Design the sequence.
């Protein structure tokens, strides 16, 4: 059996540095080529198989991952925040970075970042991410308008100026200064454009989401509609990437991290390296399910409150239950069944090891 050749790639827009090492450790070859699929494939074809290559997550990583995958045996995309040997070392250049990446790959010390295998799935995720960016832009502009008029003693919320016909009332309460009115109208034009983008993107997102069979099952859950279902589908990509529900919770920002050294008191805190978009849509879905009531998730929430659990912790536990339900439905290919959602006793067993008894997190 041929020994594995480990290849580290240090990628730049114009050139890529390659460092190839053997399974025994020594450098086999160093090389530089243009950052193009054809040049990289030609270079990799000259390396004896099997080939394992590694690159760090970045703007070009997804493109290279999908196009180089058929030509190698293994290709993890590494989380650069975990590669302290590269980032913190005293000597640093492109050739050294590629060699260190290959050595970390050989030792099994890389934390891989998940990437979709197909272009269609990546484009769907990109559209979902762009939709959420448009929503943030609309909210950001609305907050600027609220702050702008608030400086003149006019305190409003977004619904007070979102419809165009309500805006003359706000103008009537402001000083009759020409520059103020021109600036405010400019902000309103920016807001209207951002709101139009959100509406158009949401319409297109729903149209794309209806084509995916798992999403059509996700929307059966209370609190889950097309945007939230599409976001869960896009960012999880495949249910098989998580070995346990605890790993799913940590990725979604709902899990807890335990930190302890020696005989010191163990600290418990929320996972910080998480997907924030996924976290907020799951918490939002939990809130919606609780408000609707008459569903298993609302019952779980109120059962936690009855046990003197603080409301934020009870809401997070409910969001965890929603996430696990979506995950299991996807893995098993089944429809939503309220009777199969974990009852409060089962949920308590699942969450107690990760949740402090008093609900407090340091």
Sequence:
């Amino acid at each position: 059996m041929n020994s594995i050749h480990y290849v580290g790639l240090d990628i730049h827009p114009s050139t890529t540095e390659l460092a190839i090492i053997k399974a025994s450790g020594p450098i086999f070859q160093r090389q530089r080529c243009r950052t193009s699929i054809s040049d990289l494939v030609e270079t990799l074809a000259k390396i004896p198989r099997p080939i394992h290559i590694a690159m760090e997550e970045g703007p070009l990583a997804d493109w290279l991952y999908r196009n180089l995958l058929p030509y190698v045996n293994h290709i993890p995309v590494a989380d650069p925040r975990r590669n302290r040997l590269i980032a913190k070392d005293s000597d640093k250049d492109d050739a050294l970075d590629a060699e260190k990446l290959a050595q970390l790959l050989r030792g099994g010390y890389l934390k891989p970042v998940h990437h979709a295998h197909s272009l269609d799935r990546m484009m769907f995720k990109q559209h979902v991410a762009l939709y959420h960016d448009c929503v943030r832009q609309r909210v950001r502009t609305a907050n600027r308008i609220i702050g702008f008029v608030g400086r003149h003693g006019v305190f409003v919320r977004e619904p007070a100026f979102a419809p165009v016909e309500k805006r003359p009332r706000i103008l009537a309460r402001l000083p009759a200064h020409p520059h103020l009115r021109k600036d405010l109208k400019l902000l309103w034009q920016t807001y209207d454009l951002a709101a139009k983008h959100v509406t158009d993107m949401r319409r297109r997102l729903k149209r794309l989401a209806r084509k995916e069979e798992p999403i059509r099952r996700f929307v059966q859950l209370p609190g889950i509609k097309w945007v939230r279902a599409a976001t869960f589908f896009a960012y999880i990509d495949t249910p098989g990437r998580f070995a346990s529900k605890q790993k799913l919770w940590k990725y979604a920002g709902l899990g807890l991290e335990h930190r302890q050294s020696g005989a010191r008191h163990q600290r418990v805190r929320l996972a910080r390296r998480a997907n924030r978009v996924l976290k907020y849509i799951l918490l939002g879905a939990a809130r919606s399910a609780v408000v609707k009531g008459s569903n298993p998730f609302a019952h779980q929430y109120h059962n936690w409150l009855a046990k003197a659990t603080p409301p934020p912790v009870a809401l997070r536990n409910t969001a965890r239950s929603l996430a696990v339900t979506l995950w299991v439905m996807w893995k098993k290919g089944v429809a939503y069944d309220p009777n199969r959602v974990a009852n409060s006793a089962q949920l308590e067993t699942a969450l107690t090891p990760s949740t402090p008894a008093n609900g407090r997190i340091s």
User: Anything to note?
Assistant: The longest strand covers residues 15-22. Residues 37 and 242 are 30 Å apart (CA to CA).
